[in-house]
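User: I'm writing a tutorial on reading structure tokens. Could you give me a worked example: one chain, its sequence, then its tokens, then a sentence or two explaining what the tokens reveal?
Assistant: Sure. Here is the example chain.
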Amino acid sequence: MSDDTKELAIFEEIRKDITLTDGSEYKVPVAAVFGRGTLAKTESFGGRTLAENSQLVDTALANTQELQNIWNRSHTEWTWKHINLSYHSPLKNMRQIAAEITSKKNALNEAKWRQVKNEVKIRKLEEKLSNPNLEYWDEVEGKVKLAQLREGMAEGSLYIEGAMKDVLALNELYEQLKSKVSDFSEEDVEKEESKSHLKRSLVQCIRDVRQSGNITKGEQEYMEQIGVNPGKIQRMIREYVAEEAVSDSWDTNGLHDFVDHVVSNLIDNCKVDEAKMNRMGFKHEYTPGLGYDKKIAQLEKKD
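And here are its predicted structure tokens:
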């Protein structure tokens, strides 16, 4: 291989530098690839060559890299609390936290084992490359692959940290939510399901009435499945929406109070869900022995 060709070939730089660079920070610049060889002088956008634009891109990526230290997670804590965990039922918010934690746990487990496998690949490549009698092109291919693995690991660490942030934030929200709901078992969750679903349906029905004056067909079905008369609840919601529109309050406390009152009356007093189960031929009570009976989300005992 001629010296001129070596100067243009990125694999020669990788071959020379890969063993001298910290693997956790290894990165091949965009300009080192697209700014060399036959593509380097290709006319590109902005009246510049591809090589010139590649250098500008490397500068831009380096300049904005620090943003990834903040926006490398799924959501801000505000978004978790106001959007993702906005159910009117605290137990539904607990369920959402459980689902989000499971998702992050699975992502971290995948990243964990990918890291282990990549470490093995890197070690095998390093041992192979330590052979002084290795053929030139075998060395080139090995070091290019090693460079790719190292750069991938360095880039992947940002996403790993993002998932870690989410897990820690969700754990904090879990602890905070215990002030609303704690010391519950799977049986407690089952017993609360009628209220949880009715709250969700009721809020969605209120939005329907605000928008069109009527409950949509889908929400009517949901109400019927819970055991509520859709026509009667629609009339009640219309009255509430009319009062809400002339209220002096800008917050949603009135909405929460209305939902809690209606749900408590329909489930605790009218027992609409129990009547529906009796009509369908099912027992309304939870079947003992089918769930996890140990209490979870327990509050710390203060001395």
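What the tokens reveal: Residues 121 and 163 are 24 Å apart (CA to CA). The chain has twelve helices and no strands.
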